[in-house]
Structures are given as structure tokens and as C-alpha cells.
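Changelog note: in this version the structure field was regenerated for every chain. One regenerated record is shown below for reference.
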Amino acid sequence: MEHLSAFLPTSIGDLTITVYNESLGRETVVLTTPRLTAHIPPLVRIHSECLTGDIFGSLRCDCGPQKDASLHMIAASGNGVFIYLRQEGRGIGLFEKIKAYKLQEKGHDTYDANIILGHDADAREYSMAKKVLDDLSITNIKLITNNPTKVREMIDLGINVTERVPIVIPPNKHNKQYIRTKQERFGHQFDE
């Protein structure tokens, strides 16, 4: 798969950015620490795109703060990988995500909204993350996530998750129900 890397100085430290050009024209973005060591399990965040949270600072979710906290954790570790997967709205796309927002405004949670729209509650998949880790010769990781499904899927893809590292973002008045839904309906774990 075609990919290209370059040096990326950031406010949290020096990183390397690699862009993988996927077959559907989507691009997976990977940030790595300068001294990435594959034989020592690196700290890894597999983050699905959230334009509203990551870019516009939406308070309806915890995605932007999770992205920021993960990048700080990875930079501080000195041995880490941040994989940004282009699967907006739990894999349904931005337009459908906004439809789900409208349903949430009528009282449905994010799980039910996706089902009502004819989608899986969570349509994300992680095969591209596996390809990136294979390309980096990484088979063992410490995964930054609250999502046990993500852990299971990475294990099913052949990646050994040596540790699940929780990432807890304090809720605000706009996302309390969203975070409750993640815990109660998606099974997210907010502790070790």
C-alpha cells in the first residue's frame, strides 16, 4: 500500500507523520514518536475520525479530548503510535451522523439512532490499523481505549494487546448521556 512519511514538529513534541493511501481514496494518518521501538510494546491509540469533536470542538462527545489526551500520552511515552482511521460517526459517515444527531435531539441515544437509520450501532472496523501495525513490524501493543470491542477486534486480527490503557475524560452537561450510553450499551470500561 502506498504511503509517505515526513517529520512533523507539534506543540506536544516531534513526531513522524505517515499517510497511507487506501483504495477508496481515504487516507489513514499515523503519527509515531521519533524513537519507535517495535520489540517493546508501544502505546497505541486507534482513533476513529470525528470531525465535529476533533476539529470543531463539539461538546456532544468526548472524541476531541480523547484525541488530545492520547497524543500527549503517546508523546510522553517516547514509544507510541497514533492511528487516525477515516470512519466518521462509528463508520456511518458525516451526513448520516448528523441525521443521528437529529434523532438524539428527539430523545434517542446514539446506539438507537444508528439502528433507526438502518446502520449497525457501531460499524467501525480495524483492519487498516492492523495493516499499519504490520507495516511498523509491531505485534504487541498497549492500547489506549475504553472500548473492549476494539481490544477483541485487534486480538482477532492477530495483534497482542498486552495492556488496555483507559482514557477517562470528565463529562460535561452536553455529553453525559452520550458517555452513559457508551458505558451501558456499548460496554465501554472507564477504569482498569
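Spot check on this record: The CA atoms of residues 49 and 87 lie 6 Å apart. Residues 63-77 form the longest helix (15 residues).
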